[in-house]
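TL;DR need structure tokens for one chain.
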Amino acid sequence: MARVIFPLLFAVVSLSAYNRAAAQANPKPQAKPAAGKKLNVYMYSEYIDPELLKQFTAQTGIEPRISVYEAEEEMMAKMQGGGGASQYDVVVLTDYLIPVMAKLNLIQPLAPAKIPNRANVNDMFVNPSYDPGNKYGMPYQWGTVGLFYRTDKAPQFEPSWDMVFDEAKQPGSFVLMDEMRSMMGVTLVHLGYAVNTRNADEARKAGGALLKAKHSKKCLGFDGGVAGVNKVVSGDAVMAVVFNGDAVKAMKENKDVRYVTPKEGTTLWVDCMVIPAKAPNAEGAHKFINFILDAKNGAQLSNFNHYATPNKASLPLIAPEDRADKAIYPSDEDLKKMKYVEDLGKDTALYDDVWTQVKSR
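>> reply
TL;DR here they are.
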């Protein structure tokens, strides 16, 4: 998934166009959708195995219709002023947008009894800080932000944010991620500050470090995660700050590239399924969420996307090479150094101001 996010009045995070490989055809016969049984789903492009949609229709008689967005600014505008809250039945969005959407009355509480497969959710995603009690959302996929680089051009690459922010260690041309909270977050990690600091001085120092990196002769500027991956794969860049899923797909096709999470730590993200406040088919929405949380379906989704599943029942069914890949499933030791990006409320304005200065100078 490529997340191209721009500063918003509210706390809007990333995480962009995710390119996926085709999955195997589903042998099950499809049921003809019952008249009027539609389900409108709003998510990142190419973020679900098309075969899963067919299977859902075969099981329920409900036909999912996928609408896509490439930037969460676009999604938020649609949900607030574009009728999205009454147009869509399920929206897949980044974790820390949940409290923002709830405060704006754009999403409705889930009915737990209608989602029995919620029992499959890994403990790591139960009762999260961004959604206590999983009141509004259930996890879809999760991942990290890290460094993607060419092993043939940087054989002595150090898994550290110094490779971005220390000019003496920059391995060659590089791309910064065009996503405010993720890029600011990893800059704060590099400086030893909290990912979600509300301290104005710390946020401004992060802006200064980011601006210095931008002005490096080796910096190719800001770009979306997928674009950064593509530039590294093509050899136009040696390194890029990216989301792990975009990198993993490229790694499966090119032996000269690698993704790492820096030793200092990084940011975690969880994409979640929520139901808009005025969803026309809330009943079907609950069925869809429950369907995704099925063990087999959850594994099929992650084997298609090459992102980590939040479903503990799906883990035994994940492709062995993916399950063993730390680029997808970080070690417990690495996870301890990773933090969620949180809703900053009114302090988001501080980040917006810092980010705007970095981008404009």
